[in-house]
Amino acid sequence: MEAAAKAAAEATVPKPATAMPPEAGTKGGVGKSTRYALEDHTHEVRARRKRVTLAAGTGTYAGKFVATWVFDKPFATKPIIVCTPEDDGGNPVAAAAVTASFTRDADGLWTSVVVRGWRSQPVPQTLATLLLNGVFNIFDASAAGVVVGLTAAEETPTT
Description:
Blueprint: H1 2-11, E1 47-53, E2 55-56, E3 65-75, E4 80-86, E5 93-104, E6 110-119, H2 127-132, E7 147-153
Antiparallel strand pairs: 1-7, 2-3, 3-6, 4-7, 5-6
């Protein structure tokens, strides 16, 4: 009888969770599980952040200033990349953007991305200098050494 009472009492005590907590989404929820989370549990971060430094490219990227970011953990879906050039005191960094070069592994996971940057150069002071030099590309200064802050994230689920 004592064992049955003990078993009945223990049956009412919540048990620890045995599965990883769900990822964050756009809709919160109270949840329905009767299990509790342990104090050292973690939620997976769906975004990754990294600073990269642009350097002169080679091969396909010869003559361009690029950096390759290999993700520490691959993404299941193509990540959204946000590029934020950091001002290093030189001519303004005109842009930093993802090129068309994402890499996927044999399982179809997204493993890396190439980012490219452009730095502006000063416009010649006189119209004559501009005309004598022919076509002038304002985005033609070296972007070597430009630091770009990157954020990669999967789309937030809507369910």
